Amino acid sequence: MTESEVTFSNWVQDGLKLLLCRPGVWLNYFLLVSVLLSVGRISLALGIIFSAFSFLMTVSIAAYVNQPQSDETKKTLMDVTRTHAPVAFSMAVMLMLCWFVFRVVFNVYSGEPEKIISFFFDWQLFDQSIINQGIREYSGWLFRAAIVTLIFLILMLTSFVSWFSYPLMVCQGLNWSQAKHRGKAMTQAFYGVCQKQLAFSFFLAIVATGVSPFLTPLIYIFIGVLLYVSYADINRYY
Prior knowledge:
The chain is an all-alpha fold. 71% of the residues lie in helices and 0% in strands. The protein contains ten helices and no strands. It has helices at residues 8-20, 23-37, 44-65, 77-109, 135-142, 144-159, 165-172, 176-189, 191-211, 216-235. α6 (144-159) runs antiparallel to α9 (191-211). It is globular and about 50 Å long.
């Protein structure tokens, strides 16, 4: 198997096809993700956890939808949630703790240690400045924490673990260390196409959410699905 046989365009097509399967599941999940991503307006710490959790669980939902209908051992959505959610939640908490460390260092260095507590308690339920503003301004205010979290999450996955760590852990049962090393090896084996995927993911996270922040829940789902289909494709041959 050569890298030329694994293409980014095929991943995008497979991702779109997967999103068209079980539309009822995806619609309900989209509504749930939209609610979870808005939690950042209540608490940044909770917003980071729920945003990262939503992204990672999208990979699990994609794995559930991608199961062959004729498979007698097919898992139910409850089975997938029960087995995958603890891993997704633990990784989301780790991301929040990393962000908190950066926040503490920044606030202490800038001479504003009193702002550290606002990381956990910043109950901003409404902003007077968005009155009479359009949907773009309102959605940007509502999903601000989720947009930044998505960028931070992609950076963390590609820097400190591996892009494929989560699907390897939940789909193959590998531990943290095994998933990290195998995921990095998979990325290196198909470096060119993986770089295209990461560049596209950054484009969606930075440009698309900045121009159309109301699409943030959909972008979360699409990047998560793209992560799953790329993992599934490479894993068949690696």
